[in-house]
Structures are given as structure tokens and as C-alpha cells.
Specification:
- The protein is an alpha/beta fold and 292 residues long.
- The chain starts with 7 loop residues before the first strand and ends with a helix.
Length: 292
């Protein structure tokens, strides 16, 4: 087996790439060495031409099973590196591919590819041509967590007074997700989830200030998601608003009894959506402040 010199990277640069949650990886995998993380970065760059080629095939609607396998591998590698931005888009791409919806698959692939190029550029630019001359600086002997703290200490950002509130929208319709995101992008940080059964996993990564839930979804509907949300101590008082075209009084009262605070009928009107969010996020903030 050929002995290849390990690439090294300036994690101070990588840490500024907000889409890569390196600190989260370090915290979750305490035994992971900095050297192993560097090798994963290099592996991603080495396979970037294959991955981008597979994405282009899906964009052109001529992807085969090999392209699907390549992108499954790409997704796994990005997850291991702490890449969080396009998790929902990857899920949507794989799901639509399995269902034979080439147009929708192409749409998801387009959303992913530009950011992937940008990520690869950041990683490549952070390569260090000469290893730093410091005692105990062998990345194979130092955990990723210690490597970050010892060599590239960077103050963690505190929550700024003007930081955008976080909204998590759960809806099985990509059209609705895209519309809501575009309506709210200027004032809120919007996360989108197309598969409601993944909510439990997402709640371990995102802390919303308000939930927007579709009422009628397959597998789990909006009513089913409320107990999951309320089962987390952090979200016992977080506002929940239903988005639905089934705006009957029975649905409204049922949602309120389960813990929702409001109901917005589809098709969603941007002005109404922004007005309701402003109203209920303000109340949620007051509740949290009084509890603390």
C-alpha cells in the first residue's frame, strides 16, 4: 500500500465555514483524531470530481444507479464532516429518485451543487503546505477537540440581540417549503423538513423559536408531531402554528387542545404569515424570559 503524506488544514479557516459543524463532530466523537478528520477532508476533495459529475447527471436527468451510489457516499462523507446545510435536500433528492421523479430530483441536485463547489474551495484553500512547528503537533496523536482548542482557539459566538429567530417548517410539499422560506428569509432563519418522521433527529440539531407544521402529511401528520415536540423540555412552550387547507373548526380546536397556538390556511398569504409569526414569537420570548 502506497504511503501518502497526510494533508494538513488550517482549522481556523474551516471553523469559519458555518455549514461545517466541526465543533459538533469533535464533541460527538471525542476519540476522533485531528489527523483522521484531515484525512476525511482530503478524501472529500479527492472524490469531488466524481460527486459533482454525479450531481450533473441528475441535473441533466440522465443519472443511473452508479450516480445514485456515488451521491449516497458523498452524503455519508459530508455527514461525517459535520456538513448540515443540505440534509433535507439530499433526502428529497434520494426520495424523488427512488420514485422516478427526474424533474424533482434535478431540482434538488441543482440546490446542492453550487454550495458543494463553494465548500470544496474553502477546504482546498485551507490546506497548509508546511506543518506548523509546534511541540506535540502531530494530528494523529491529538483529538480533534484538543486540536481545535490548543492550536486554533476561537471565541464562540454569543447570541446577538439582533439574531434572527429560528423557524422550523415541516411540510411534505417542496413547493410550500420553498414558498415559506422565501416569504420569511429576510427576517428569520428558516429550516425546512420534508419528512416528518425525521423530526426527532432534527430536534437534536436545531432549536427553533417557532414550528410551522403541515396538518395533512403521510406517515405522521401535524397532530402526531405535537407530542414529539412537547416531549422535549426545550420545546414545552415553543409556539406551534398549523399550515393547512383543511381549516375546519374541528381541526382548529383539536390542534389547540394538543398545544398549537394558531392555524393558517393554505395557500399561505405572506403578510398573514409574517404577522402571525411576529405575534407568537414575541409571546414565546416573553414566556422564556419569565421562566429564566
Amino acid at each position: 500500500m502506497e504511503n501518502k503524506t497526510m494533508d494538513r488544514y488550517d482549522l481556523a479557516i474551516i471553523l469559519k465555514q458555518s455549514d461545517l459543524n466541526v465543533r459538533g463532530v469533535a464533541a460527538a466523537m471525542e476519540n476522533l483524531s485531528a489527523g483522521s478528520y484531515f484525512c476525511m477532508l482530503s478524501e472529500l476533495i479527492d472524490h469531488a470530481p466524481v460527486f459533482s459529475g454525479a450531481l450533473r447527471k441528475l441535473i441533466a436527468r440522465d443519472g443511473d444507479r452508479n450516480a445514485y451510489k456515488d451521491l449516497s457516499r458523498m452524503y455519508a462523507m459530508l455527514n461525517n464532516l459535520g456538513y448540515e446545510k443540505h440534509a433535507t435536500d439530499f433526502d428529497g433528492m434520494f426520495d424523488s429518485y427512488d420514485r422516478g421523479h427526474s424533474r424533482l430530483t434535478s431540482t434538488y441536485a441543482k440546490k446542492i451543487i453550487d454550495d458543494f463547489y463553494g465548500l470544496c474551495t474553502v477546504i482546498t484553500d485551507s490546506r497548509i503546505s508546511q506543518p506548523p512547528e509546534a511541540p506535540g503537533a502531530d494530528p494523529n496523536e491529538v483529538s480533534l477537540k484538543d486540536w481545535i482548542e490548543r492550536l486554533y482557539t476561537e471565541p464562540r459566538k454569543t447570541t446577538a440581540a439582533g439574531q434572527k429567530p429560528v423557524i422550523l417548517t415541516v411540510d411534505d410539499s417542496p413547493v410550500v417549503l420553498k414558498s415559506v422560506s422565501s416569504y420569511l428569509a429576510n427576517d428569520y432563519k428558516v429550516y425546512m423538513l420534508a419528512k416528518p418522521y425525521m423530526l426527532e433527529k432534527v430536534l437534536g440539531q436545531v432549536k427553533p423559536d417557532l414550528f410551522l407544521l403541515d396538518y395533512n402529511m403521510p406517515v405522521l401528520n401535524g397532530f402526531d408531531l405535537i407530542p414529539i415536540i412537547r416531549g422535549h423540555a426545550d420545546f414545552k412552550d415553543t409556539p406551534i402554528i398549523f399550515l393547512t387547507s383543511e381549516g375546519t373548526l374541528d381541526n382548529v380546536s383539536g390542534a389547540i387542545k394538543l398545544g398549537a397556538c394558531d392555524f393558517i390556511a393554505k395557500p399561505v398569504q405572506p403578510s398573514i404569515l409574517r404577522e402571525r409569526l411576529g405575534k407568537h414569537i414575541g409571546k414565546g420570548s416573553e414566556t422564556r424570559e419569565s421562566a429564566s
